[in-house]
Design a protein that fits this description.
- The complex is a heterodimer.
- By secondary structure, chain A is mainly α.
- Helices cover 75% and strands 0% of the residues of chain A.
- In chain A, α4 runs antiparallel to α5.
- The longest helix of chain A has 37 residues.
- Chain B is 76% helix and 1% strand.
- In chain B, 36% of the residues are buried.
- Classes of the chains: A mainly alpha, B mainly alpha.
Chain lengths: 291, 323
């Protein structure tokens, strides 16, 4: 990052994207992770073409091990495991994006406000973060889902609304440092309103760690959805990878039910983690200097 | 040490209102949940009159703020309520479960933390080389495995097929007497703690230890020490490690704070009779007194762990005290 503060407002937006991709590309494994995410997205979009019968079509063969007709076997109802995995990619990806999106917006708002206003508001919000960290999050989610119903969109909102604290803390820290920088003071001195300065100067320059964290959060969201479904708290109207694992618990001899959906979850989570790793590397100038 | 005392007192005082808010929040969360606890208490076959009698007997017909004050009053007297499901006081139920979870979590965490930190420091000492890359990628891969899936696979392979370990539970029926019982518990604990170590604790501590050592090695004071002609081995062992250990201690505090409630999935897979399975069942069975008690114990635990972690950090890193 440039140390010439006066040049910062012009230089950062113009130069970031190019260096970002170049730095990201230095990490081969992160590129591979990105490829996996893109492939999974393609599979999710093309699900009707790849598995035209749909995930709930009941075949004659029940609990069939992998065969030519069913490469990954079937479950106890005769549903094709491969089809469930293909259609399940939609649920996992939508869930990941939804959760990350919600926690991104909520986190930025709840992090930027106290940092910008400072004083007792800031103290109050810091206590609020602490309290939120003290509530066992996963149980809060289980409680809400178990009591208010198993709906995938609803679950997504709840998980998103409990995942914002890290984003809020990162945003707060960023805003605190950036609002003291010369280019922000300059634009305030030139008569720009507080909101406008926040929107045009402080947030765009401070969002990078939050974005890196959101990528990692997508990995966490996929695991959370799978875990809820695994516990039997999934949406009965949608197939998901975790639900297959829930079924697998009752049919432990049918190893294909336990192995394949788990591999799918593992690969997508690993991919998101690798991408997140690459994003933090590319966005954090300190990491790049240390070589 | 004067600064340290003040620091500890200040941190402790900050945590008191937090616990109070958690208490009220717990109460509200449980109370706004739909479902009639009186109906659950009286049982499925109860008549309307019986349900109403139960409601009055347990004070469920009184206004919410009265229920809250009497709940808080009871707490002060050490009365956490009565579990309808277990037909025992909530405190008794919790005290049966807390040690089981702590046994599993502390064992796995201590082992995982040691192995992870050593591997992380080792990776950092080989920074940027093949050993470092292999260790980092392997650890990230294990971290990406959902614990419940890994647990399921371990059960499948080592319990069901190879029959090396029991596939569920805490202690064998035949294990009588102190030593036989301890051995049986240890035997039951192998698969769940291997799961926790490989998929959680080792990767977490490897990552933080590695990152921390790498960061410290690039700080200015290390350059100064190097410039003084100190051999690299000593720079690493004597000057870098002490500062690098601070984030590791903080991370240990963070994971320790999740100890009681953070391993519910592992407990579920292996039917480990701990806090996680207790709370999960309490939610499913609407056993609200147990749930509220568990949330409370969890909050108190978190507060205590945070406090201890803060103190340890302040002792290790004097800069923190005056921040």
């Amino acid at each position: 990052m440039t140390t010439d503060a006066a040049a910062a407002p012009l230089a950062i937006p113009a130069r970031r994207p190019r260096t970002f991709w170049r730095a990201f590309a230095e990490r081969r494994l992160s590129v591979a992770g990105l490829a996996v995410v893109l492939i999974a997205t393609a599979v999710a979009v093309l699900a009707p073409v790849l598995a035209p019968l749909g995930p709930t079509h009941l075949h004659q063969e029940r609990l069939s091990p992998p065969t030519a007709a069913h490469p990954l076997g079937t479950d106890r109802l005769g549903r094709d495991v491969l089809a469930i995995i293909i259609w399940g990619a939609r649920v996992s990806l939508m869930f990941a994006v939804g959760v990350a999106g919600i926690s991104l917006v909520v986190g930025i708002v709840l992090g930027a406000i106290p940092a910008y206003l400072g004083g007792w508001v800031d103290d109050l919000f810091s206590r609020f973060y602490e309290i939120f960290l003290m509530i066992p999050r996963f149980f809060l989610i289980i409680l809400v889902v178990a009591v208010f119903g198993q709906n995938i969109v609803f679950t997504m909102i709840i998980v998103g609304l409990t995942a914002w604290v890290t984003n809020a803390r990162l945003t707060r820290a960023q805003v605190l440092t950036i609002k003291e920088r010369v280019f922000v003071k300059a634009s305030m001195a030139s008569g720009a309103g507080a909101f406008s300065v926040m929107l045009h100067h402080v947030l765009p320059n401070g969002l990078y760690p939050v974005i890196a964290n959101s990528t990692l959060e997508m990995a966490g969201a996929i695991i959370t959805e799978a875990a809820l479904s695994f516990l039997g708290l999934g949406d009965p109207n949608h197939v998901s990878w975790g639900q297959l694992l829930h079924v697998a618990q009752e049919h432990l001899r049918a190893w294909w039910l336990a192995v394949f959906p788990g591999v799918a979850i593992f690969l997508l989570v690993l991919a998101f983690n690798l991408v997140g790793d690459g994003v933090s590397y590319a966005l954090d100038p300190r990491l790049r200097r240390q070589r | 040490m004067h600064g340290l005392h003040w620091y500890i007192l200040r941190r402790a005082a900050q945590l008191v209102p937090v616990v109070l808010v958690v208490l009220v929040l717990n109460f509200v969360i449980v109370k706004v949940s739909p479902g009639d606890p009186a109906l659950t208490l009286a049982g499925y076959w109860a008549t309307k009159e019986q349900v109403e009698t139960t409601r009055q007997r347990w004070g469920l017909d009184r206004p919410l703020h009265e229920q809250l004050t009497s709940y808080l009053g009871n707490l002060l007297r050490g009365d956490l309520g009565f579990s309808n499901h277990f037909h025992r006081p909530v405190l008794d139920v919790l005290m049966m479960r807390v040690p089981n979870t702590l046994l599993l979590v502390l064992t796995s965490m201590l082992l995982g933390m040691t192995v992870g930190t050593v591997l992380g420091v080792f990776a950092a000492s080989r920074y940027g080389r093949t050993t470092d890359l292999v260790l980092s990628v392997t650890s990230l891969s294990f971290y990406s495995i959902p614990v419940f899936w890994f647990g399921l696979l371990l059960v499948l392979v080592f319990a069901l097929n190879l029959k090396w370990f029991p596939f569920a539970g805490f202690v064998g029926i035949g294990a009588q007497g102190g030593l036989a019982r301890a051995a049986s518990v240890a035997w039951h604990m192998v698969l769940p703690s291997v799961t926790l170590m490989l998929c959680l604790y080792i990767p977490v501590f490897l990552r933080i230890a590695r990152a921390s050592v790498v960061e410290v090695m690039h700080e200015d004071y290390i350059t100064t020490v190097r410039a003084a002609g100190i051999p690299e081995r000593l720079v690493f062992l004597r000057h870098a490690l002490r500062n690098a250990i601070v984030p590791v201690v903080q991370m240990a505090g963070l994971w320790m704070s999740h100890a009681l409630t953070g391993v519910v999935l592992t407990e579920t897979v292996f039917s480990w009779p701990g806090m996680g399975t207790l709370m999960y069942n309490a939610i499913i069975q609407r056993d609200y007194p147990v749930l509220m008690g568990a949330f409370l114990i969890a909050a108190v635990w978190v507060v205590l762990v945070f406090l201890i972690a803060d103190i340890l950090t302040a002792v290790l890193d004097p800069r923190v005290r005056y921040a």
